Amino acid sequence: MKNKKLFNLYLLVIVLFLFAQSTAAEEPLQIEKVAGNVYCLYGPGGNMGILKTGSGLLLIDSKVNHSTEAVLKKIKSFSPAPITHMILTHYHWDHTDGAKTIAKGAVSICHENCKETLIRRAKKTNQDYIATIKTFDKIQKLQVGKEKITLLHLGPGHTSGDTIVIFETSGVIHSGDLFFHGMPPYIDVKEGSDTLNWIRIIETLSKKYPDYKIIPGHGKITGMKNYLYFADYLKYLRKEVSAGIKAGKDAGAIMKENKLDGFKKIKDKGFFTTRKNNILWMYQELTRKKK
Questions:
Q1: Given this model, what pLDDT does residue 156 score?
Q2: How many angstroms separate the CA atoms of 281 and 187, rounded?
């Protein structure tokens, strides 16, 4: 009975997720300079990164498919240069759905685990594009224009195939969904989330790139101080849910008793990215059977 209730709760969360994504189209497209030649494109779906060079544009992620035409129009008004590269930070559709159209003719790159998941999960109409995506394992270096770029995979975190993009010349990190700034994160238990390693990833980046600006997967551009605050939230979430599990409580009981109110800067957004859902996903991760 307990497992059935948990499953029904999980289905409800998925329905709420789809509803939240459908309302995201109302967010306006806006481009903001981050540092150097790196910009952020806000709007429906995850934050896009844009590297502007004299010879072309490198994009990070592609937002949702229904905004593709508007995204392309916005990018062309920003720069008429061709799109030469597309980096996908992870497989989630609010970051990859428009890639097939936006990245046409460009070199697309993602982590090998991300590509495997895209092959399994993406629409059949996108499979021809996915087949062309180049992959890497742990690290890949790029030179685009004058910008030195490092692609990093530091193990599972938000998913099993997260890519961190480091703009070495401009001093900017695009974290993908390894950072939800100002809101609770989605923890993708089904596709290999590892919140303990997620925390380690943030701490590793903070030591190596303490002064870099950060484009989060969702939320506004910020710095390392707020990224470490987010890591502290994940630590506290793990601690509280672990304690509940050790006490023999199920996810519902832990959600009822703990509202995670100690982190005032992290506020629920919509029906999906909520602290209550974070407790549910953390419970699922910590009780997940190892393969």
A1: 98
A2: 6
Distance CA 185, CA 247 (A): 25
Handedness of CA 180, 20, 115, 89 (dihedral sign): negative
Nearest Cα residue to 106 out of 125, 86, 88, 89: 86
Other beta carbons within 10 angstroms of residue 25's beta carbon come to: 14
In a 3-state reduction of DSSP, which class is residue 230? helix
Positive or negative, the CA dihedral 289, 164, 91, 143 is: negative
Give 76's strand partners: none
Fold of 2-286: Metallo-beta-lactamase; Chain A (3.60.15)
Angle between helix 195-208 and helix 224-246 axes, rounded to 10 deg: 160
- What's the whole-model pTM score? 0.91
Q: Is residue 45 within 8 Å of residue 25, measured between CB atoms?
A: no
- Per-residue pLDDT tens digits for 217-266: 999 999 999 999 999 999 999 999 999 999 999 999 999 999 898 999 99
Q: How far apart are CA 206 and CA 222, in angstroms?
A: 13
Contact yes or no for 39/52 (Cβ under 8 A): yes
Distance from CA of residue 273 to its chain's centroid? 12
Backbone torsions φ then ψ of 144, nearest 5 degrees: -120, 110
Name the burial class of residue 204, with classes exposed (0-12), middle (13-18) and buried (19+) by CB atoms within 10 angstroms of its CB: middle
Spans of all domains in the chain: 2-286
Closest residue by Cα to residue 54 from 27, 75, 16, 81: 81
Structure tokens that stand for 105 in this block: 């003719």
82: Cβ–Cβ under 8 A, 6 or more apart, which residues? Answer: 56, 57, 105, 106
